[in-house]
Design goal:
The protein has 469 residues and is mainly alpha-helical. 82% of the residues lie in helices and 0% in strands. It has 2 domains: 413 residues, MFS general substrate transporter like domains (Growth Hormone, Chain: A); 54 residues. This is Major facilitator transporter.
Length: 469
């Protein structure tokens, strides 16, 4: 039991580090821009290079774990991620930092894609698995908020290089422990399922899709370049689906989508993360540009959210799921998040953090902390052990696609509304706040749709057992 607990701690620590790295750099972007001379348009690639590699390689990484062993893929990814963190920290120019961020995203994909599959294998008993997934879900749910806090602290007290250097001791210790604690597992080998064509189609399609989404803010969605890139990415993904239906050893066995829990959970994940990841981006802007908080204060302003998530996911989530069923907890949690976003949609230009933002962060943390473990449990509940890696990679892939969609769509909606009001002569604070309100309302709508899908598409295991009986 102590061995399993320590192994779980290592897996979740690495998962937290990878998730955290997607947001820790966000607060440091102004300092990076000043030091390396980025323009506003090129600065976005410090974030986008990581996101594109991470999202594009998750599915392939998960399948590699099933074929050659999840421990091997995890260790390789952790090693690449740690080395890339060092290279990012010592980067001397723009090109180096962007290339090393792409490498860092690739390592993060390899490591994190197999974590959930390893956790479910490590804890075969239902209640123990539910507790373990609750811990893992905390890292997924709170990682971005913790990243904002850590990024603001490191940048203000030290410098932006430490947003990367902080990964080095964590990565080194995790590598040493993982080699000893994680059980060796051997898959059937690459020859049993090396779908090179499928791998190329899905990796290229996902990377191009995420690239198109993040560039849409610059080009606009109606631009021919955006529409053309979107069409090509969808064509590649459609080719991948066709390939999987015909391949003898598919990279992504389409049979897993026949599992109601898998298809429903992944749909909910896209909608939920699209609303919540965009919320973080918009709220950071509202706190800094309207309420005039500095980088460090902005980071700590998010602290109530991860604290609430921790309490729910680590203390209460397993008990609630056991007593009421995963779907009931998921629907209730998502409803609380939608309510919190609706509350934020009423913020004013002369607003106050304590009364206008803090209550929503607490409610959102409670709802998300309850919903995330239930959703992760649903995504893996009926998956065969041989497909655990690809199912883990799939739910992480949909999470990243949702993040890209949410950030691009909500940022575009907010900017469009603000631009229209500025053209009409509205003062800057009021115009910005109105744009943020529009984004919050869209976020609430996405969460409301996620509630509907969860209620209709998913079932509680207790209900299924009653039907069978």
């Amino acid at each position: 039991m102590p061995h399993r607990a320590l192994a779980l701690a290592v897996l979740c620590a690495v998962s937290l580090m990878v998730v955290l790295d997607g947001s820790i750099v966000a607060v440091a972007l102004p300092a990076i821009q000043n030091d390396l001379g980025f323009t506003p348009s090129t600065l976005a690639w410090v974030v986008n290079a990581y996101l594109i590699a991470f999202a594009g390689l998750l599915l392939l990484s998960g399948r590699l774990g099933d074929l050659i062993g999840r421990k091997r893929v995890f260790l390789a990814g952790l090693g690449v991620f740690t080395l890339a963190s060092l290279l990012c920290g010592i980067a001397q120019d723009q090109a180096q930092l962007i290339v090393f961020r792409f490498l860092q995203g690739a390592g993060g994909a390899l490591a994190s894609a197999v974590v959930l599959g390893m956790i479910t294998t490590l804890h075969p008993e239902p209640r123990a698995r539910a507790k373990a997934i609750g811990v893992y879900s905390f890292t997924q749910a709170a990682g971005s908020s913790i990243g904002l806090i850590a990024g603001g602290t490191l940048t203000q007290l030290l410098d932006w290089h430490w947003t990367f250097f902080v990964n080095l001791p964590i990565g080194a210790i995790a590598l040493a422990l993982a080699v000893r604690l994680l059980a060796d597992d051997r898959g059937p080998g690459l020859r049993a399922g090396t779908d090179v064509t499928g791998a190329g189609l899905v990796t290229g399609g996902l990377m191009l899709l995420v690239y198109t989404i993040v560039k849409a803010e610059e080009y606009t969605w109606a631009d021919t370049r955006t529409l053309g890139l979107l069409a090509v990415s969808l064509l590649l993904l459609a080719g991948f689906v066709f390939r999987q239906a015909k391949a003898r050893q598919p990279l992504l066995p389409l049979r897993i989508f026949r599992l109601r829990a898998v298809s429903g959970a992944n749909t909910v994940m896209v909608l939920m993360v699209a609303g919540l990841f965009g919320f973080q981006f918009i709220t950071a802007l509202y706190l800094q540009r309207v309420l005039r908080l500095d980088a460090l204060s902005t980071g700590f302003a998010f602290l109530p959210a991860p604290l609430s998530i921790a309490v729910m996911s680590l203390v209460f989530a397993e008990r609630l799921n056991h007593r009421f069923g995963a779907r009931t907890v998921l629907v209730t949690g998502l409803s609380a998040v939608a309510l919190a976003l609706g509350f934020l949609a009423t913020v004013e230009a002369d607003g106050n953090y304590a009364t206008d933002v803090l209550p929503a962060l607490v409610l959102m943390g409670i709802g998300f902390g309850a919903a995330m473990p239930a959703l992760m449990g649903q995504a893996m509940s009926d998956v065969a052990p041989a497909d655990a890696g690809v199912a883990s990679g799939l739910i992480n892939t949909t999470q990243q696609i949702g993040a890209a969609i949410g950030t691009a769509v909500l940022a575009t909606a907010a900017a469009s509304r603000t631009g229209s009001l500025l053209a009409e002569g509205t003062a800057m604070p009021e115009a910005l706040t109105s744009g943020y309100r529009t984004a919050y309302a869209l976020s609430a709508g996405l969460l409301a749709l996620a509630v509907f899908v969860a209620a209709v598409a998913l079932r509680d295991r207790k209900a299924q057992e009653a039907i069978v009986a």
